[in-house]
Design goal:
With 700 residues, the chain is α+β, with helices and mostly antiparallel strands. It has 28 helices and 9 strands. The strands form 2 sheets. A 6-stranded mixed beta sheet has the order 2-6-5-7-9-8. A 3-stranded antiparallel beta sheet has the order 1-4-3. The longest helix is centred in the middle third of the chain and has 33 residues.
């Protein structure tokens, strides 16, 4: 595919430097922020100093490195598209504030880090009269996406996810508060689109890169993630930047500059693990390619492996040290992934040793392998597509996610089978946004691409885009087989953030191939007949094929996005939280006494209101007499330390009234949210609700 080698003086070189530099900056500040947050030193002065130093280091690191060759017009168009996307996504951003989804959990973690300057935040039990209620299990500090750690005498609160979103979005909190932090994902995703476009430019051509960037930006899962403080934009910048750098490395000369770029590529690919805990999967998929390159005598393999290993180890160490409760919760998925990484790494090393020992496959196998594997690609695609007719994928029906799915099935009139993961429908998920024509074209192009890579490899050449192909195709396959997420769309479609851009690039590559073939055939006709009309048709061949390619993906993408073209969801949440904070005063302590008050509001009040918050545990909430006794005990303990206890309910006023207290309504608003769907894409908005009632509890 690639006919566009790297060039230092190309118009795309500056865009390449911006994209790679941004990815490196993200990795550096997250790594430094994690270490300093563990020590409680992540203050604004320290954080901004780290940001400036990381920017200087990133600028130096990308200076003089190879860039993508592009035309001035294509580079300008791509930049304009990405800037336009950032403006649009930022202007229509969602307000994920209450931890109902991962975006709000990341925002609250960012607020906590920015305001307390440490990752794990201690809780002073004296405000509730001592550790007794925690020891007995009457109350807890745990809530959605936040764990209670430590002992009842010295407890603390630990955020759930890894460090990347908290550090990067925390800069937005420092710069302009939570509202400003909500704008950052749009900017980060715009950089990711730029990198996708640059990668397509390097593989296919300048204007096809523009098409890939623009089409990816039209996809609703991409826009939806850019509107909220999710981790995917950060991981996408690091991974796309790393794959672009690897592509430039393979395409370039094996010199000092290329080896420096290889080191950067490894740091970026491994550094994606600082934003998403499952990103080592992509690092694993790069290992076989590195083994092949080492077998071909490429000297850039060593620096790339050093960068990959170093950033992966840093990400793993920070996750183990600062998110260990989260790792424990997902061990059922994490342990098999780690075992697979070890297996792939050992197999890659073993095959490299056999190669260097002179072992080779028979020539007949080498000759047939490209076509055989291309056929297997098609068969695999057809198998994944056909799964709904012969497979139903299930999980443990007692899993919390299964209970949630069962509730959705009841509301949507579907057969109740909470253990279903709907993973057999993952190809359908892709079709919602790309259309079936795009999927068929992408599958055919993928098969031909695999055949081309293997043929060139048999001749002793590693195709420049082979690493990106292996990583993206492998990640897509693993996602389609096991998405590993509650199938609540559009929330679940975040899992497609590698697959969707990859398939868009494949479709664009198919369009480029078709345009060149059509031009060649028309050119032969012109030479044979000397027909001026045929010459005119030849000039229009590529624009026509490009337009058809864009329409094949663009029409289904626009149709899926169109119902959500306006402002994002949960608007009004930020104002609601401010209202609640305004009703609380210094010295208050809050206890949540119903379901939503126990999941959505604890960290919100702690982080945004600066008020201590505990949660009545489920057994206590289910026993009215016990709940009243616990609340009265907490009120006496709070009063003994000079505080006032407030009860808070978010499911209605009844929980407050049942305690013999007079509920005071603080908030009762409706807001739009995408409908939750299991077996189809979301098509409309539903109405969500925030209601908050409080009451002071007299100490008696």
């Amino acid at each position: 595919m690639s006919r566009h080698p790297a060039s230092l003086d190309a118009p795309g070189a500056a865009l390449t430097a911006v994209g790679l530099g941004t990815g490196l900056w993200t990795v550096l500040v997250t790594a430094a922020g994690g270490v300093l947050a563990a020590l409680g030193w992540w203050t604004p002065w320290v954080g901004w100093s780290v940001a400036v130093l990381a920017a200087a280091a990133s600028t130096w690191a990308v200076r003089g490195l190879p860039g993508v060759r592009s035309t001035r017009g294509a580079a300008t168009a791509m930049l304009a598209l990405c800037v336009g996307f950032a403006v649009y996504a930022g202007a229509t951003h969602s307000e994920h504030v209450l931890p109902r989804r991962d975006a709000a959990s990341n925002l609250q973690a960012a607020i906590s880090l920015a305001t307390t300057h440490e990752r794990v935040v201690p809780f002073d039990v004296s405000v509730i009269g001592g550790a007794g209620p925690l020891e007995r299990g009457d109350v807890t500090l745990a809530s959605a996406a936040f764990y209670q750690v430590g002992t009842p005498q010295d407890p603390a609160v630990q955020p759930q996810f890894v460090m990347g979103p908290a550090v990067v979005y925390g800069y937005g909190v420092w710069a302009g508060g939570p509202g400003f932090a909500m704008l950052l994902p749009a900017v980060v995703m715009a950089i990711a689109l730029l990198l996708v476009g640059l990668l397509a430019t390097a593989v296919i051509g300048p204007w096809w890169g523009v098409a890939a960037s623009g089409l990816t930006g039209l996809l609703f899962p991409v826009l939806n993630v850019a509107r909220g403080t999710y981790s995917e934009p950060l991981a996408m910048v690091a991974l796309a930047g790393g794959l672009l750098a690897v592509t430039l490395v393979v395409a370039g000369q094996d010199d000092a500059r290329t080896r420096r770029l290889a080191l950067l590529a490894g740091v970026l690919v491994g550094g994606a693990g600082l934003a998403r805990v499952d990103s080592p999967r992509e690092s694993m998929l790069l290992l076989p390619v590195l083994a092949v390159a080492a077998g071909l005598g490429q000297r850039w393999v060593r620096p790339l492996l050093v960068g990959l290993g170093a950033s992966t180890l840093v990400a793993g160490a920070l996750a183990a040290g600062l998110s260990y409760r989260y790792l424990g919760d997902i061990h059922a998925s994490l342990v098999p992934l780690l075992a697979l990484i070890v297996l792939v790494g050992a197999a890659s090393w073993g095959l490299l040793r056999l190669w260097r020992a002179g072992r080779r496959l028979p020539r007949a196998v080498v000759a047939r392998a490209p076509s055989v594997l291309a056929g297997l690609v098609v068969l695999t695609g057809l198998g994944l597509w056909s799964r709904p007719w012969w497979m139903t994928v299930r999980q443990d029906p007692n899993d919390p996610g299964a209970r949630y799915v069962a509730g959705m099935q009841r509301r949507q009139g579907l057969p109740v089978d909470g253990g279903r993961t709907y993973a057999e429908h993952t190809v359908d998920w892709l079709s919602w946004y790309l259309g079936w024509v795009g999927l068929v074209v992408a599958l055919v192009v993928l098969a031909f691409a695999v055949r081309h890579v293997l043929r060139r490899l048999a001749a002793g050449e590693l195709v420049a885009w082979a690493p990106a192909l292996v990583v993206a195709a492998g990640s897509t396959l693993l996602t389609l087989v096991r998405p590993g997420i509650t199938p609540d769309h559009p929330w679940a479609d975040r899992r497609l953030l590698i697959a969707l851009p990859f398939l868009v690039v494949l479709v664009c590559a198919g369009g480029d191939w078709a345009a060149r073939r059509l031009q060649a055939r028309l050119g032969a006709g012109v030479e044979a007949a000397g027909d001026a009309r045929s010459a005119g048709r030849r000039r229009w061949a590529q624009p026509l094929v490009a337009a058809l390619t864009v329409l094949a993906v663009g029409v289904p993408a626009v149709l899926a996005t169109w119902p959500f073209r306006g402002v994002g969801v949960e608007r009004g949440s930020l104002a609601a939280v401010r209202t609640v904070c305004a009703a609380l005063r210094p010295g208050d302590v809050v206890v949540g006494i119903d379901g939503r008050a126990s999941s959505e509001w604890p960290q919100t009040v702690r982080g945004m209101c600066g008020v201590p918050y505990v949660v009545a545990t489920t057994p206590v909430r289910q026993d009215p007499a016990r709940l009243e006794a616990v609340v009265r005990e907490l009120a006496r303990g709070a009063a003994a330390s000079g505080h006032r206890l407030m009860v808070l309910s978010a499911d209605g006023p009844d929980a407050v009234a049942s305690l013999g207290l007079t509920p005071r309504e603080l908030v009762d608003i409706r807001f739009p949210e995408e409908e939750h769907a299991l077996d189809r894409p979301p098509r409309r908005f539903d109405l969500g609700r925030i209601q908050v009632y409080v009451a002071p509890v007299p100490a008696r």
